[in-house]
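User: Sequence in, structure out. Go.
Assistant: Echoing your sequence, followed by the structure tokens.
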Amino acid sequence: MNRVVVTLVGKDHIGIIATVCNYFAENSINILDIKQTTVQEYINMMMIVDLEKCTKQFSEIVCGLEDVGKKVGCIIRVQHEEIFDMMHRI
């Protein structure tokens, strides 16, 4: 399994999740876990996804999701799960 952490932050509006999920589906990326919080008009979403069946390179996925973020007016970041875990150790 090739797990990565995807975070999304921005102003909430209709279609954000649909656009991100369509990108995942088009690239054979499986969502393993998802958590979303909306505070007033702002959305904060964190997803654990599996890239095992995706044929694109990690760098292509990073750029692709950054482009999706621009399209929906949000910031999307992608990190390998191991790096995310190391950064958030106490």
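User: And one key feature?
Assistant: The mean pLDDT is 92.
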